[in-house]
Amino acid sequence: YRLGVPEWRRRWHVAAALVPDQQDNARSALALADAWERPVLPVKGADLVALGVPSGREMGALLMDIEHWWVENGFPPEADVHAKLQTLLTERRRG
Q: Is the pTM of this model over 0.90?
């Protein structure tokens, strides 16, 4: 997700070149990359504005935090993301 498909492919090409017995694994990984669709974070700045978060640093930090959580937890569904967002907002408001 963070590397992007081009970098993922480049790294597998390098691995296959450096370790010949990795060529079958590299072919599988490259096929996976070709079929992969990058997930889209189901929360946008407009969602945060609707929850009373002002535009600016606070919004940017909150979006980064929720994206990090989303990636680290395997891209959970939108409802789970919104629940986590509410938790983060409550924690930040308590201060």
A: no
- Between the alpha carbon of residue 20 and those of residues 10, 13, 68, 86, the distances in Å are 15, 11, 35, 49
Rounded Cα distance between 58 and 27, Å, is 43
Closest among 79, 41, 83 to 63, alpha carbons compared: 41
Q: What is the DSSP string of the chain?
A: --S-HHHHHHHHHHHHHH-GGGHHHHHHHHHHHHH------S--HHHHHHTTPPTTHHHHHHHHHHHHHHHHTT---HHHHHHHHHHHHHHHHH-
Cα gap 80→74, rounded to integer Å: 11
* pLDDT 10s digits, 22-43: 778 888 888 988 898 999 999 9
